[in-house]
Amino acid sequence: MARSRLTPERESELYAAVLELLREVGYDALTMDAVAARTHSSKATLYRQWGSKPELVARAMRHNKPVDIAEIDTGSLRGDIQAMLAHTDDCQMDKDAALMRGLAHAVHTNPELHRALRELLIEPEMNGLDEVLGRAVRRGEIDAGNPALKLVPHMLIGAFIARPLIEDQPVDRAFLSSYFDAVVLPSLGA
Question: Using the 8-state DSSP alphabet, how is residue 181 labeled?
Answer without folding.
Answer: I
